[in-house]
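Methods — Computational structure assignment.
A single polypeptide chain was analysed. Its primary sequence is given first, followed by the predicted tertiary structure written as structure tokens.
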Amino acid sequence: LGAGFHNIITDSLQSISNVYPELSAYPIFEGISGLPAFAMVGAASVLAALFRAPLTASLLLFECTRNYDVILPLMASAGVASLTGDIVEKWLDEEQRENDPVSWGDLAT
């Protein structure tokens, strides 16, 4: 997941810098983090979404890499992944409750 995102961003920035060469002086066009960094952030985000533990995933990745550069993107992606997991789980739970023939009564709230 993270490696695929890295490839998309790298190709997009390369295409933009080919069309607009004057933009290549900006720091974002000089280079972004390597493929392993994106792959590790993607893996930690999946861990955060599955276990609903973004802080645990962030600390685990930091302990493995000892790299401060991945903390901010990791916290952002882990938070979004955990929030998305919560929303999807709530949506699926409501859908299952609607299709259940048993009346939930007061337990539905």
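Note: The helical segments are 2-19, 27-30, 35-51, 54-65, 71-99.
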